[in-house]
Amino acid sequence: MAGTRPALPDATNDSFLQEALNEANAYRAKHHAPPLTMDPALVEYAKSRAASRSEYEADDMSHEGLRTGTGENLFWGAGTGTTPYTAAAAVTDWYNEISGYDWNNPPGTNMTGHFSQLVWKGTTRVGAARVAGQGAKWFETVIVFVFESPGNYANQYKDNVLPA
Q: How many Cβ atoms from other residues are within 10 Å of residue 143's Cβ?
C-alpha cells in the first residue's frame, strides 16, 4: 500500500553508515553482544524501507510490508532547520528505551522493542538508511535500521538481551 505523500529524498552517505555502525556497536558492547557488520544488501533494503516509510505521516508509520526474517527499527524526527538527524540521535533514542525494560520479566509491558533489537545478541548484520527533506510543516528525517537475524522472540530475551 502506498503512502499519502511523495517519499523524502535519500540522505544516506558513507559517514552516516559509519556512524550508524559505530553507535550501534558501542551500545551492543555494553551488553556483551558481538559487533554488527554493515551488509550492503541490507543497506539497499533499508533505503527502500526508509523511502516507503517516509510516504506516511509519523503517526501512520509502521512495519507494514517488512520482509520475513528481518527486524526493523524506525526513527522519525522533525525540526525547523534543514540538517538531517544523525544516526547517533536515532540509536540513542532507541537505546534509551532501556529505562522501561523489565530485566526480571523481559521484555515487560513497556515499549522497549527498539532497545532489545539493537542489543539482541543473536543479530549479526545490519543495514541503515536515512531520508530527509521538507515535509508539509517541518524538515523531516526518517532513519531505518534493518537487522538480520531479527530479535525480539518470546522466551529468548534472557539469552539475547544481557545486562550492561
A: 30
Q: In the sheet that 71-79 helps form, which strands lie side by side, from edge to edge?
A: 37-38, 125-134, 139-148, 71-79
Domain boundaries, the chain: 14-160
- The C-alpha atoms of residue 93 and residue 76 are separated, in whole angstroms, by 10
| Fold observed for domain 14-160 | Pathogenesis-related Protein p14a (3.40.33)
Partners of 148 in the beta sheet?
125
Gap between the Cα atoms of 153 and 132, Å rounded: 31
Cis peptide before 9 (omega within 30 of 0): no
Q: What is the pLDDT of residue 24?
A: 99
Element (H, E) at 115: helix 113-119
Strands (E), 12-161: 37-38, 71-79, 125-134, 139-148
* Residue 104, C-alpha cell as written in the block: 526480571
Residues composing the chain: 164
What is the pLDDT at residue 2? Answer: 67
